[in-house]
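Entry 12.
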Amino acid sequence: MPGHSGAFARALKVDMQSPAGLAAVKAILRELVVTYHFPFIHIGGDEVRITDTTFLPSVDPLESVVTIFNRQIGGVDARTARIIGATLCLWNDRAVASENDLLRMNPVYPGMLAFAERSWRGGGKSGWVTGIGEPGTKRAAAFAEFEGRLLDQRRENLAGL
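Predicted 3D structure (tokens):
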């Protein structure tokens, strides 16, 4: 999605990328995850004309700051001297008019900060983690602490990017 949105529009009488369509998509995904306990769902997003730039970030946050921050790097669950570096890649699925489009279409700057934080701290969880954790958990507190620093960076160094 949002591919095959013609079938969606015929069935639900609403454009998938409209606010009502996005609400319907989220409800469907929520029901799928709860019913079938999917750990993740791949939705694609390439080869489709995106008319609502908030659509994809709202429904497949696998490469979001939250996921990058929580991802285990190098298969180790704690900081170690064995891992002396890491690489954060940017893989665009669509042709872009300029390199600057890559920066606008992806969370590059906050992603770099999240990746640097996780690389430095070690730890994290293996596999995909798309949520910050339940309120009151250690994982949620760690992300909240990082988010404060991230917002400071946004205000002081990344304004307008």
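Annotation: The chain has seven helices and no strands. The chain has a mean pLDDT of 83.
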